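Protein in question filed below.

…
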Amino acid sequence: MKLHALVEDFEAARRAVEGGATVVQLRRKGASTDELVAAGEGFGELGVTFVVNDDVEAAIRLDADGVHLGQTDEGAERALSTGLLLGLSASTRREAALAEYRGAGYIGAGPVWASPSKPDAAPPIGLEGLEEICQSVSVPVIAIGGVDATNVLDCIRAGATGVAVIRGLAQIRELAAAL
């Protein structure tokens, strides 16, 4: 089981890893590549998988393990050609199948529930939508969106390989124990 912690800085990443996160994803919406590179220094030394959100160039410059892109983000081909693990977002079975076809090593499925950390997200897919996505692809599926300690096991029962959390970082030890 994977616990992805979406963080904005090294200190949050360190705490997440200490709490049990197996993947840290540097996520700073609107940051430039140079800002991401500066913020990502040291992440690779945490001993877990390190992924950069939305910026292939920053992932390459940081020697990250991977990059996570949205459905409309460009750079999937470049990420794959440089050996980065590619994560792609999906909120439907069709998007998940397309993400797998494009070479995704994992799919971030959601939002499962509404999330205050991303008010502009697509409508929630619920556990039924998560289960459909999990059943339609052969790559790992990571549930995201409104995941917390009260519903993490529901995501796993629906077929997710793991979960991604932003606001749940305060509960990371509890989430890691549940997984």
In short: The chain has a mean pLDDT of 93. The two ends are 6 Å apart (CA to CA). Residues 126-136 form the longest helix (11 residues). The domain at 2-178 is CATH 3.20.20.70 (TIM Barrel).
